[in-house]
C-alpha cells in the first residue's frame, strides 16, 4: 500500500496543514514522528529549519510542500538543497500570495541567462 | 568542419531553449491552477468552520494514529529527470471488509441478531429446537454485522465528526486535486532544472566552437 511509495511532507500554517492532511498525506510513523509541521506564531525559525532538514534526511519523503513565507525564513537551507529527491515545492499561504520571483527553482532557472553562463 | 558543427550546435541549442520555454510556460500554468485550487480549498474550509464552529476545524482534531492515503512514486529517468506520480490507497469496500473480518478472530458473542434467553429446564424438547434455530441463524448474521466496522481513521474527514458539512468535503476534494497537481509540478520542476543544465552545457560547447572558428579565421587572415 502506501508504504511502498514515498510520502509528501508539509510545513505550513494551520489551514495549509489541515487541508493537506484532509487530502490524506499525513503520517505518524512508529516513532510517532509526523510528516508535517504546523507553524504557529511562536514556532521558532530553528525549529522550522531542523524539521526541514530532518525531512530532507528521511528516505521515505518524496516531496516537501512548504508555504512560501516560511520558505523565506529558511531560504539558505532551501537554496542549499540541490538534489531532485525530495523535491521542494513552495506554495502560497492564506495571507501571503505566491510570488514567482521568490521561488528558488524559478530563480535558478532565471539565473541561466546571467553572464556567468557564457564564460 | 567548424562552420557545420557550429550550425548544428546552434540548432540544438535553439531546440533546447524552446523546450525550456515550453516547460516554463507549462509550469506557470500548473502553478496558477494549483494556487486557485488551494484558495478554493481554504474557502471551503472556512465555510465549514463557519457552520461547525471556529475550533472545530483545527489541528486539535487530528487523529492520534495517522496513516497516509496517498504516496508518491519517484522514477528516475535516464536523462536525469525524475517522474513523480501519486498513488492513492483505495478505501476498503464493504465486501473486502467482510472478508477481512472473517480472517480475524472474533471475540465476544457470535450472534448479535435476535437471541433467545436461556430458560430454566422446563421442557427439553423446546430447548433443543431453540438451539437448532440459533445455530442456523448465526452464520447468516455475522458478515452483515461488521459492515459498519470500517477503520474510522482511514478517512481524515471523520476526524472532524461523523456528519460533516458538504463544504468540508469540497475542501477535501480540492486538496486531493492539489496533491496530484503538486506531483506534476515537482516533475516539471526537475525537468526545468535538467533542461537548464543541458542548455548551460550546450552554451559552453557553442562558445568553445565559436572561439575555435574565430581563431582559424584569424590564422587565415594572417596567412
From TrEMBL, chain A:
It comes from Cottoperca gobio. V-ATPase is a heteromultimeric enzyme made up of two complexes: the ATP-hydrolytic V1 complex and the proton translocation V0 complex. GO terms for molecular function: proton-transporting ATPase activity, rotational mechanism. It holds the Pfam family ATP-synt_F. This is V-type proton ATPase subunit F. It comes from the Eukaryota. One of its GO terms (biological process) is regulation of cell population proliferation. Belongs to the V-ATPase F subunit family. The gene is atp6v1f. Keywords: Hydrogen ion transport, Ion transport, Transport. The keyword Ion transport applies. GO terms for cellular component: plasma membrane; proton-transporting V-type ATPase, V1 domain. Subunit of the V1 complex of vacuolar(H+)-ATPase (V-ATPase), a multisubunit enzyme composed of a peripheral complex (V1) that hydrolyzes ATP and a membrane integral complex (V0) that translocates protons. V-ATPase is responsible for acidifying and maintaining the pH of intracellular compartments and in some cell types, is targeted to the plasma membrane, where it is responsible for acidifying the extracellular environment.
Automatic annotation (TrEMBL), chain B:
One of its GO terms (molecular function) is unfolded protein binding. It holds the Pfam family Vma22_CCDC115. Residues 121-149 have a biased composition (Basic and acidic residues). InterPro entries: Vma22/CCDC115. Residues 100-153 are annotated as: Disordered. GO terms for biological process: vacuolar proton-transporting V-type ATPase complex assembly. PANTHER family: COILED-COIL DOMAIN-CONTAINING PROTEIN 115. This is Vacuolar ATPase assembly protein VMA22. It comes from Zoarces viviparus (Viviparous eelpout). The lineage of its organism: Eukaryota, Metazoa, Chordata, Craniata, Vertebrata.
